[in-house]
Amino acid sequence: MREAYHVELEQLADKLAAMSVQVADAMERATQALLDADLAVAEQVISDDAKVDDARAACEEQAYALLALQAPVATDLRTVLAAIHAAESLERMGDLALHVAKAARRRHPEPVLPEQVRGYFAEMGQIAVRLARQAEQVIKTKDVGAAKELESDDDQVDDIHRHLFTVLMDREWPHGVAAAVDVTLLGRFYERFADHAVSVARRMIFVVTGRMPGYGPGDDEI
Amino acid sequence: MREAYHVELEQLADKLAAMSVQVADAMERATQALLDADLAVAEQVISDDAKVDDARAACEEQAYALLALQAPVATDLRTVLAAIHAAESLERMGDLALHVAKAARRRHPEPVLPEQVRGYFAEMGQIAVRLARQAEQVIKTKDVGAAKELESDDDQVDDIHRHLFTVLMDREWPHGVAAAVDVTLLGRFYERFADHAVSVARRMIFVVTGRMPGYGPGDDEI
């Protein structure tokens, strides 16, 4: 019985790791769609999002079944609850990639981003994708050290995001209000994506240590 | 034993209801601070946010203890899991009120909002606060009908939010890029606050019906 239970727990972790890969891929493609004004890639991200939602539902159902049938305690209970939270964050990361793709589609064939800020988004996109792939590793290895590495990558995203605002707020911003609104929202999508990746990693630390390093995907107010 | 368990479950629901009141009050004050450029009120919201975080931690700990010690099944299990999700959404609502208050503080003594959009925020603020208070009622009564009412209030917030973008995107927007960036982010904070209130209500429907009407606090990409 307990053996079967641990097999199921492993399957749940595998599902979460697969979700991390899904949302990393989604954000990679969404960023490509954004930078290259590539409509076909944007459409692919948009239609693939339903798979992320399904994966989340499957994770949650398996977690519920585990709780109801096995009544786990201690670390096993923490693992199942961390999985429920992680699935929620990963679904949200998928939504944020979807928002980026929809922005690319909305402005197509025009590029969304003025050339001046393109580099910032290329960099935020790269780090965001790396964070999602690191989250996959943390889920697989439950390595506390690796989880902490995510925090410094997240700090980089926050730095770029803040810098973006100084660029936007500059009186010399020449690209108009509509572009500023797009850049504001897109910057926030990347920043939140990174926050949620960190949140997934923190939940995994909780599984290992039993102590939660801060609650939830906290974010900057800008 | 089962008696003590249901008492604890009631206590958990009471804690969530109290959190709903906390975040409703926070958003009410944050909106006042925003509309009146009232620094003292903004500071109060900012310092009170730690209480919301503490309340969330307390909810989560009680929920974990219930799962570990009582191993609930069926509706009781769903109730505890819904409580964990609701606590997460409520904490997030507190963060969003905090962001509004911080925007008011950042621009003080200047008003954040151009007069032209002030009315939209007054209205979004009112509905957002009402949603949080309705969430409290749904938690207390588990009334599926009341939960559905929240959805139509949320639609109103979405409508105002979308209209705000048409105002911003108008070539005649005369208030400059910095104001547009503030309005963009603030609009999003209200919209997300409303989404999370709906998410709390949906979780309560799940408790009663065992069926989840859509996952998570889904949002518009603008």
From TrEMBL, chains A, B:
<comment type="similarity">
    <text>Belongs to the PhoU family.</text>
</comment>
<keyword id="KW-0813">Transport</keyword>
<feature type="domain" description="PhoU">
    <location>
        <begin position="122"/>
        <end position="203"/>
    </location>
</feature>
<keyword id="KW-0592">Phosphate transport</keyword>
<dbReference type="InterPro" id="IPR038078">
    <property type="entry name" value="PhoU-like_sf"/>
</dbReference>
<dbReference type="GO" id="GO:0006817">
    <property type="term" value="P:phosphate ion transport"/>
</dbReference>
<dbReference type="GO" id="GO:0005737">
    <property type="term" value="C:cytoplasm"/>
</dbReference>
<comment type="function">
    <text>Plays a role in the regulation of phosphate uptake.</text>
</comment>
<dbReference type="InterPro" id="IPR028366">
    <property type="entry name" value="PhoU"/>
</dbReference>
<dbReference type="Pfam" id="PF01895">
    <property type="entry name" value="PhoU"/>
</dbReference>
<protein>
    <recommendedName>
        <fullName>Phosphate-specific transport system accessory protein PhoU</fullName>
    </recommendedName>
</protein>
<comment type="subunit">
    <text>Homodimer.</text>
</comment>
<dbReference type="InterPro" id="IPR026022">
    <property type="entry name" value="PhoU_dom"/>
</dbReference>
<dbReference type="GO" id="GO:0030643">
    <property type="term" value="P:intracellular phosphate ion homeostasis"/>
</dbReference>
<feature type="domain" description="PhoU">
    <location>
        <begin position="18"/>
        <end position="103"/>
    </location>
</feature>
<dbReference type="GO" id="GO:0045936">
    <property type="term" value="P:negative regulation of phosphate metabolic process"/>
</dbReference>
<keyword id="KW-0963">Cytoplasm</keyword>
